[in-house]
Amino acid sequence: MRKILLLPLFTMESGHHRTADAFMESLRKLDSSIQCEKVDFLSYVNSTFEKSLSEAYLKWITKWPSVYSKFYMRFFNRKSAILEFTYETLFLEKMERMIQEKQPDLIICTHSFPSFLVNKLKEFRICNVPVVNIYTDFCVNHLWGKKHVDLHFVPSQDTKEQLINNAVPKENIIISGILTNNHFLKRKKRKPNDWKMHVLVAGGSLGLGELSSLRESSNSKLVEYRVLCGSNFSLYKTIASLHSDAVRPYSYVTSPAQMNQLYDWADALITKPGGVTVSEGLTKKLPIFIHSVLPGQEERNMNFLEPRGLVQRLNDDRPIEEQIISVLHHPAAVGKIKRAMQYYANEMEVHSCMEAAGYMYDRLINHADQMRIHYIDQVFSSLYQGG
Description:
Number of helices: 14
Strand content: 5-15%
Radius of gyration: 23 Å
CATH topology of the largest domain: Rossmann fold
Structural class: alpha/beta
CATH architecture of the largest domain: 3-Layer(aba) Sandwich
Largest sheet: 6 strands, parallel
Helix content: 40-55%
CATH superfamily of the largest domain: Glycogen Phosphorylase B
Number of domains: 2
Distance between the termini: 33 Å
Order of helices and strands: EHEHHHHEHEEHEEEHEHEHEHEHHH
Number of strands: 12
């Protein structure tokens, strides 16, 4: 039995968790004997500390976004010796202890923080467990562990070239896009004749983002909205109080199958530029409109997505509905979006989470088993010949 340890960050639901869950599901389908465990390292260190830190982070990015943006660009957008020294001093020994306790045969990181720590342990020859990075944003910050990671599933050709320039062997880098649940690969069923447009609105799992402008669409006769409020109960109550058939709120959706049904219902997606949600929209080939951008990683995602025509930024000074209709009713505009999506899809070297899991399984698990069997055969052969 093989034990695989998956390391996202924080206990709150996020794209890091959704990708980890999707990969676990794929691995279990490949080999039911595999034991997968998902652990938030900060909670392992101290659950109270994790809760305080996650709450402080959310408050920071929502209350003082410009300050966090500057902090991110200073410490994550470039190599920071101060940040790395702090993380090593506070957490490296604890990561070593956790790995010794869990005894995994393989480690998968879906966030830069655990990846940095495990990479350091391998650099210092304290850990010899194979490590995989699965990137969940379109731009890779400098904290991610790189040189001592055995396999990288990257979002684009740009990221592959960036890693090669950081001395990562190209054979260890696979362009996969941002991996999403296999449910989203199912073909969209044709809808019955419906002259209304259907728009899915997502604010992330925490319902972050400025969505109050949807109030103006509560009496729409042209567009029907379904709003994913996540755990933002205030947003849910605000939309529910409209008592509108055109704008309906949903609390946090946990089932990938249910989420896929919502994507199939939709003609377009309004969201933030979070890596996993945008990737789900791209997989479903939905025109994607950006309603707000959180500071830090989402700003960098936007810098990747917008110039490539993969998302359209909404203008705060114009009604949302007017902007959506102007695009979706314009065949040339829709065609341009579809071509941008196809151009991006052509970069992929694996095309699904299941395919990525299969590649990793053959490369790091099957191959290791075959090498072990070959070694044992050699030992017994030598003993037999010696006898």
